[in-house]
User: What shape does this take?
Amino acid sequence: MNTIKKKRNTSQYAIWFILLGMIIIFTIGNRVFVAPNNIVAILRQVAVYGVASVGMTFVILLGGIDLSIGSIITFVNIVCAKMMVDMGMNMWLATLISLILASVIGFLNGFMIADIGIPPIIATFSTQTIFQGVAYLISDGMPIAGIPAGYSLFGKDSVGIIPVSAIIMTICFAVGSFILNKSYFGRYFYAVGGNEEAAELSGIRVRRTKYLVYILSGLFAGLAGIIMLSRTGSAQNTAGLGYEFEVITCVVLGGISVNGGIGKLSGVVAGVLFIGSLTNGMILLDVSSYAQQVIKGIILAVAVGIDLMSKKRKVHN
Amino acid sequence: MGETKVLELDSITKIYPGVVALDNVSLTLKKGEILGLIGENGAGKSTLMKTVSGAIYPTSGKIIVNGEEFDEMNPRLSVEKGIAIIYQEFNNVQELSVAENMFLGRPIRKGVVIDRAAMNKRASEIFEELGVDIDPNTIMKHLTVGYQQMVEIGKALLLEANILIMDEPSAPLTINEIENMFRVVRLLQERGVSIIYISHRLEEIFLLTDRIQVLRDGQYIDTLITKESNVDELIRLMVGREMIREYPERDIEIVEDDVILELKDVTGNGVENINLKLCKGEILGLGGLVGAGRTELAELLFGVKKLESGSIIYKGKEVDYKTPREAIDAGIALITEDRKRYGLFLHLSIRENIGMPIYERISRSSVIDSKKENKIANEYFGSLRVKANTTEEIARNLSGGNQQKIVISKWLAADAELIIFDEPTRGIDVGAKQEIYLLINELVESGKSIILISSEMEELMGMSDRIVVLAEGIKAGELNRDEFDADQILTYASNVRKGVKA
Assistant: This one.
């Protein structure tokens, strides 16, 4: 029985070793990879999906999926920019309202999934489409430029050498880790994701737990959207396009089981750094963006495959 | 009975990393005999049978089928050699018809199209041989478990299996279904099929088998001629120590007036007009056949299902719980029959399983007091004598008996005062059963009240202070301890009002 436990741990750390190996390979390929400037650049790049991956971790632990986060990122970009640029709203108020709206989208996901019983993949797919459309309607399909100069704080500014966005991401991971490991909500996520019926019969309010998780996913995606808007300085209608893919890959690479109930947030940190380094390293090594897509797709399939195969082995033993 | 050996296992050893699951186990199955295979959970019965079906490969040893020697089997080969296994969970496709299931992967064809008529005809012939009335066109999911099992047996017959292995076949069946299954098994025996019958229920082993082989801790212990053996001997061999098979005595006096729970005309979830009382410190047995409404009644009390009419009076107050959470907070616990599915979080640790119902109680502004959590987990881990190294062990790795102890622990930790046990010892081996009984006694002695749902007559009569029998959702009878009588309980239980569902 001890062997099983050990096995679980090694598979958890595997991603860190893979990350290390990849860093070494990229460094050999191009010294620039480990230059302080490049590392800072990587941190800046990963902040957006790093923040969103905290919420996605909760969702996948719960046995669900959230495809709407890319659209939430776009939506937040457009709405927040619209409020600041066209309505002249104070940037803090605009940010706050945007985050609330992102949570409301999460609430909507929760309603469809927990109360109506729509499968998560369909429910969040529909909100993905809806809020991409809403973003287009609000912006009239045009990018919104002219964001106040002070807004660079979340995505562009640095404290010394460390980007504020990386600090925000770190705080998000710390908060996420606190929720998962220290609060009873975290236990509920694991419980519901592993066995929903037993969870209900153990007194867990499964419905409420689902709402909470999708709202948090929306909120973290909203925050990711804010960081992105701040970094780019203008709101694009395609800002968050495809981000759900990156984020899901990070989470699954980090060892969160696609069937729910198993995995640790620390693994997701490695998953995020892995995808960030991979993207950056491939650019440095001149891998075309088309080939990058192929490679990332393969990585997602392999990560899920490994997760499922290790489970199968367990059952056979 | 011929002396031809149809199956021989010669010194089978199976080693998993760190565990010897089978240690030099041999077995002989003769033509046309029924061999009982018994042992506690984890003794290696299923592992041994899996080497025969080819689901796992032995580390060493030989498998000899009808004189042909193999180092290992594989699922296809074992079917070819006439071996069929019926597992506890059936391998069927619920949405397909009976005939389609029987011919799955090997349909009868007419050119390129499937010849349904021929398949139905062949299936009907087989059911006729077995003497069971199943329409081959029926969709699998509409059949009761007992009939689904018959389809599995029919499939074995279709494949012309001469070795049939049955792993706990009676576990999901009702009394009538078991009788029918026995009849079919004997029929197959007459036709020369050799059968290995695995069961926890020793009465069945004695009714059905010719010889009995006992395993313990992955080792061969003994093989006995059924006629020359007895229950006590078997239990001694299985457990490896002398066991008192009687139900333990309780030291408690029940005060008749101290009623903790009263049901008045309770209706809903398939039960009707149930009236009963439960006193503090009492064990009330709920008897009846599978589907009589016992579990359904428990679900009403626990807030899983809605009460339609009538009233539940708990501790002097009329209550109507909308969710299990409300029932739990009021001090009610439901220990479900299928503990793996409804009772446990197999992927979580013992500590987390025990803490799950009380995390909100032991949290301050949603942060779990981990000192308290560990203290509570360790307390019950120790006092219930759970066999595991630490509370960090994952529930999946525990035996059935120890898993049940974890489920009980979690409700004790939640301060439950009224505990509903639904088939608490199903699938648990003899030694662990005794421990569960002792535990239940300790619970009532410490002032808890218990509703015990059980299909095992002996257990029901041995443990209960009073028995209420349900039949088809209504209360069919009630007996006090001095009136306990198996025949009377059965008569009440089969008190049928409406037509029985096939």
Observations:
- Confidence is low (pLDDT under 50) at residues 497-502 of chain B.
